[in-house]
Structure formats: structure tokens, C-alpha cells
Amino acid sequence: MTSEKVADRTASAAAARQNGSGHGASEGYQRGLGNRQIQMIAIGGAIGTGLFLGAGKAISKAGPSLILAYALAGLVIFFIMRALGELLMYRPVSGSFSEYAREFLGPFFGYVTGWTYWLFWVVTGITEVTAAATYVHYWDKSIPQWVSALIFTVVLYLANLISVKLFGELEFWFSMVKVTAIIGMILIGIGVLTLGFSDAGDTASVSNLWSHGGFFAGDDGITSMLMTLQIVMFAFLAVELVGVTAGEAKDPKKTLPKAINTVPWRIAVFYIGALIIILSVVPWTAFEAGKSPFVEAFARIGLPAGAGIVNFVVLTAALSSCNSGMYSTGRMLRDLALNGQGPKFFGQLTKTGLPLRGTTFSAVLMLVGVWINYQWPGEAFNYVVSFATISGMWAWIMILVAQLRYRRKADRGELPQSEFRAPGAPWTSYFALAFILMVIVLMGIDQDSRVSLYCAPLWGLIMGVSYLVLKRRNPAAFERKSTEHYAKLAADARAEAEHVA
Question: Where in the numbering of this chain does the Amino acid permease/ SLC12A domain appear (predicted)?
């Protein structure tokens, strides 16, 4: 096929997608995300407040065995991301797992996944802007929490309206701050352990990993470690965001596989490596819920500025997550609109290729978080965080099941094989599914996290009723398309990706 034919086919596919009748790879978006931005988005998605703050509670429950919990969960996350990568190379679309659920599981699952992931990011945006507002109090407690939340929401909203490239730049620098902080902590910790300098030099030792009650030092041994898996999995939420960038990556065939393949070493360094160093420098018995293990480690080393440094890092982590929420919600609403499963109002793009209407609507809902901060500044975070974990894991389940369905069709020759096949599949996908289901069961057992499951039936009822109503009004939008239809869309997507590259 000549480059002229590829260009013509790409243009017609994008135009059809713009009108809601096709599924081009870029879907009318501008490919403004380069390799370094995609890599940092992938890194940033795996590093958040769950590590900088949430790890304190997990350490106090499980002791050093938390390292094993992160290793197990990290392996499962890699399986999930490789399953997503296989789907992305088959058909790179901005709707990502919502599109794959629609294709391989049916219109209902695509509908539920799209709206659930949209709500996940709205809720996450509220929680993170709430958290960011509380971090400002470290420097100035006279600033009302709701004022900080309002400023952060407006600034990030405006940044997302300028260009996708600016979103990518913000994520790049937000992630750079987090990465620099963790690497700095690791290097300082290694220096303390090997050279013995600092206030912690006399007690710092790798033996701290097993000398205070053993490696499985929690109250219930291995059971305590298992009960922290829900906290660990929450820390990894948003790692799948790299899939949503598929329609705006400059060279998705190269950048996305590279970003996904770096998941193991990112987890090994930033989670496992950091925890090994921290728990070697400071005995696990010194940590407690609600306090950052990074702050405690800096304090023990004798760096009083450490608390301020970590506070700045968790502030950027929260803003990074909120920024990602602004980005993804607009794309999800547009995908639903173009498939007839959401208001057509959200289907339009600006001249610069931005889903202005969907982003604006989502940002307005995030401002509800500002009102919550005004009404209940001390309880706001707890009010909105419960839904995030279960909705995020729903997206992971859809990715895995869709990949299993795709692999069966590809192996039968009904669909083209992906250029980035998941190693060990389907068994790795089955293992990841079983692991996620086990975590959900553990969430039901644990009293602290059980509230996360209470929202799921209510949301499922809302989705089921609304689906039936919309299907009756517009049956065509919920008809299941043929395998041949999706095979053609995949061919168009690959042709566009090759042309762009």
C-alpha cells in the first residue's frame, strides 16, 4: 500500500470516527505525546501517595513481609500490563479497555467499563485534590483547605485545555520529582548502611528485615501480609493509564511496548528497592499508620528537611493523579459518546484535538470535592476514597478477560495476531484474575476496607437500569458488531500507526 493510500485511508477513518461511525486509531486526536512523556506517564502511574503515605499503615500491619506483598502484586501488575499491551498493539485506541470490553465481551461491558473508569477518575481527582489541599497546611495552616483545592482544580483544568503536549509535560515533571525523591532516599540509605554515617548509622542494618520478630512479623504472620494486599493494589491504581494515551502517542508501536516492559524494574526499584532500604535503615516497629515511612527514615538519618521534602513530593504525586484524571475523563466520555453510549454532546473535539466538553464536565464534578472540603474538611478524604479501589480493579479485570477472548480469536485466525504478545498467556492472565478476586475477598473480610465493596452493588444497579433504558431508546448503539468489523478497524489502526511512524 502506498503512503498516499495510507494517508487517505487514515484521514477517512479519522473523519468517520469524528462523526461516530468509525474507530480510527487516533480518533481525531493529535499525537502530541512523545517517548519521554509516555515513559514518565507510565512511571508516574505506578508511583503515588499509596507508596509515600499508605505504606506506613501497611508496614505497621505486616512488617518486612510487605516487601513480598509488593513483589507479588507487582508481578500481577506486569501480567495485566502485558495483556493490555497485546490489545494495544492489536488496535491502539484512546478508549482502550472500554473499547476492548465492548469488542470482546459485548456492548454492556463496554458501557459499564467506560462509565466506571470515568467515575473512577472523577472520584480519584476529588480524593487527590483533597489530599493536595491538606499538604499545603504543612507550610501555611491559615489557608482554608477548600481554597487550595479550588486553585489546584482550576489550574490543572486550564493546563489540560491548552494541549495534550502540556499535559504530557506536567506529568513528566511531576513524575521526575517522585523518581528523584525515591532514588535520593535509596542512595542515602545505601550510604548509611555501607558507610555508617548519620544518626542512624549505629542501628541501621539489613538484619532489621528479620531481627524484630522475623520477616513475617505482623500479628498474624503470613495472614497479615495477605491482608495488606488491598493497600498494595491501591498503590498501583492508574498504572493502566498509559493505555488511554494510545490515540495520542506519536509512535505507539514503539513507545507503548517500551513503557510496559519497564514495569518490572520500576516496581523493583521504586517499591521493593525503596522498602528494603527504608526497613533496613529504620526497624519496622518505628512506623505507624498515617505517617509517611519516608519522613520517618529522613528523621532517623538526621535530615530535618526530610519532612518538608516528602511533603512536597506527595503534593506533586496528588497533583499528578488529579492531572491524569482531567486527561482521562474527557477521553472516556468522548469514547462513550462516539459509540452512542453517552451524550453526543461529549463527542466533539476542539481544533487542537482536545475533548473540551467532557473535560469541562468532569472538572465541574471534581469541584464537588472543593465543596466537600468546605463542608467537612477533616473527613473529606474518607468520604470519597472508598469507591476508587474496586472501580480501578474492574478495569484490570476487563483488560484480562478481553485479552483472553482476543487471544482465542487470534489463535483461530479470526483476528490478526498482536505484535506484542503477552508471555505465558493465557495462564498468566488466569493467575492475575485469580489474584484480583482473592484481593476482593480480602477486602470483604477486612473491616477497614469493606466499605469499598458497598458502593459496587449500587453502581451496578445504576449501570444495569441505565443500560436497559438507553438500549430501548437507541438499539443500534448497543448492537454487537461482527468480528470482521473489528478486524477492519484493527487494520485501519495499524495502517495509521505505520504511517505516523
Answer: 38-475
Domain locations along the chain = 36-411+427-479
**Which pLDDT score is estimated for 424?**
92
Q: SS3 sequence, 266-284?
A: HHHHHHHHHHHHHHHHCCH
Instruction: Return the number of other C-beta atoms located less than 10 Å from residue 191's C-beta.
Output: 15
Q: Which fold has domain 36-411+427-479?
A: Amino acid/polyamine transporter I (1.20.1740)
- Which DSSP string do the residues of 56-118 spell out, in sequence order? HHHHHHHGGGHHHHHHHHHHHHHHHHHHHHHHHHH---TTTHHHHHHHHT-HHHHHHHHHHHH
Q: Are 442 and 230 in contact (CB under 8 A)?
A: yes
DSSP-derived 3-state class of residue 141: coil
Query: Please, which residues have CB within 8 angstroms of residue 375's CB and are 6 or more apart in sequence?
Result: none
Give dist(CA 132, CA 373) in Å, integer.
Answer: 11
Mean pLDDT of 189-201: 80
Check: CB of residue 497 under 8 Å from CB of residue 9. no
Chain segment 453-467, per-residue pLDDT in tens: 777 888 899 999 999
Burial track 376-409 (b if 16+ CB lie within 10 A, e otherwise): ebeebbeebbbbbbbbbbbbbbbbbbbbbbbbeb
Which residues have a Cβ under 8 Å from the Cβ of 418 and sit 6 or more positions away?
Answer: 86, 87, 89, 90, 406, 410
